[in-house]
Amino acid sequence: MNYRRYLRPLLLAGLAVPAVASESAPPAIPAPIEVRNGVFVHNGKPYHGVGVNYFDGFQRLLEHPEKQKAQPPEYVAGLAFLQKRNIPFIRFAACGFYPNEWRVFRDDPKRYFALLDGFVAEAEARGIGLIPDLFWSYFAVPDLMEEPISAWGARESKTRAFMRCYTEAVVLRYRTLPAIWAWEFGNEYMSECDLPGPIAANKWVVPGLGTAKVRTQADQPSSSGFIDAFKDFAATVRRFDPRRPIMTGDSLPRGSAWNLAHGNGWKPDTREEWCEALVAANPGAVDALSIHYYHPHRDGSNAGYGLAKMSMAETIALIVENARAVGKPVWLGEFGPAGGENDIAQRRAQIDVLLKIIEQEKIGLAAYWVFDSPNPEIALWNAAPGNSNEFVFDKLEEFNRRMAGQSKQATP
User: Fold this and answer.
1) What is the pLDDT of residues 324-356, one digit of tens each?
2) Could you confirm whether domain 3-16+51-410 is CATH 3.20.20.80?
3) Which contacts (CB < 8 Å, 24+ apart) does range 393-399 have?
């Protein structure tokens, strides 16, 4: 499929390369972070660092157009704070969340990239690495393309054509910048897969923000469809950037992930089945096993993710074991305290436990959820200047300082 025809305004604006450029060899480009022998490497040495999710640092400009002309933009103060606290990198949505927010790119790509350029340049000027997530919400692009969500699984769909075109435009625009550490597909897509019953029909229906007016069974995605989309994304990125890591952005598999994919409903996976689902969700040219992990609730549960009756330390150790077996590092794209935990002392203790496990298991890249979010639904996780969770940055700074010291001691 000639996917370019779906974004004619982009081509007219001259922001996509001519067709011949797609076949040319990528230039020699910097890659601050690479994967070598199954580990993340920075400047030739194994890297261990913890950043934060600045999820809506850019997305707010699309959600609230009135902020586009604000000077300085809100993210300037946010990135300045992160620089002051020595946060090495951020994971962020390099896209809209709802379909309406994507229309800025579709209809006026010059304006869209002017906004994104500003965010990227500010981070680069402050020495903050970037892990852009290109398709955060699983429903937004299919809704924008007026297709069911299952269109992610169809290679000839308009959804997949849009994915290739946006990926090409973003990677070509920023691949020479040392601020770009890695490329990520989306956020927790596999958590929406293979669910039995009419669950999908009632999710994310907000027509005023551009979503479909109703959901049908065609909106129920399959794991096989998303896995094929991950492969397509990775292949598209690799045409233009041969070195930077590619990640899916997914969470832990559900405790029944393998059985759900095989039509067995909510039957609990065996250890072997669950591990198979974990590896399968990060296929081929995807460079890391992507997980999100939050401290379990006080009753030991973790909202149906991971294997039942397995502790946090055992679960992460099992994930690392599988990652080593397939020659990939672990990307802990989100971690934080248990949901609903309103005790500050408890949150402090839970973050200490998580950081200790990250260190013990030598997880190279991890990002705290979340920084400076105005969303009241995630306030208990939100760490921002002056709020009750600002202590998080003391812990992250100390962790990064210790890891950097260990790296220097290991240098011959």
Assistant:
1) 999 999 999 999 999 877 789 999 999 999 999
2) yes
3) 393/85, 393/87, 395/348, 395/351, 395/352, 395/355, 396/50, 396/51, 396/52, 396/85, 396/87, 396/368, 397/85, 397/86, 397/87, 399/50, 399/355, 399/358, 399/359
